[in-house]
Design goal:
Blueprint (H helix, E strand, L loop, with lengths): L2 H16 L4 H17 L1 H8 L5 H15 L3 H12 L6 H16 L1 E8 L5 H15 L2 E8 L7 E5 L2 E4 L2 H14 L1
Parallel strand pairs: 1-2
Antiparallel strand pairs: 1-3, 3-4
Length: about 180
Amino acid sequence: MASFVGIYARALADVVIDRKLDADRVTADLNALETFLHESADLRTIWDTPSVSSEQKLKLLDAIAKKAGLLPEIRNFAAVLISNGRIRVFDRIAKEAIEQINEQLGIADAEIISTRELGAEERRSLETQVAKATGKKLRVRYLFDQGLIGGVLVKVGSTVYDGSVRGQLQRIREQLVAS
């Protein structure tokens, strides 16, 4: 990763922390802007072309920021990247910034995978247990996988907590093979 990616990411993370911005909102805004960039080759070309005036690029950014309801700080961050010719690596910078913000705020992204829809009390209990185990606040995304047979699979970063029947059967099989 180029060193400038970390520098820009750190600068945005510092703004978010210093201004006590909502990390979830910042993440959503960065993801929205990344989606705009990903889906529009014309937008990427305009923002990355030196022959298009800075004024035109910023007017386009303002229209997008207004339409998407972006935080002023995210709009300004994008303006800096456009002005400095770094918008082509927006996705890498945004990803690194989100990681730094989460690290500084003690937030971890988690996936909880189950075979069925979990009730509100089950979700709350599970989230409390995982937060206690990780020592972090969680931003949870729930997924379904009928192949688990039963139980849940929890992923927090690169750590996997496998409480599924499929996982238990796999561990039994490994023990039998090892014996």
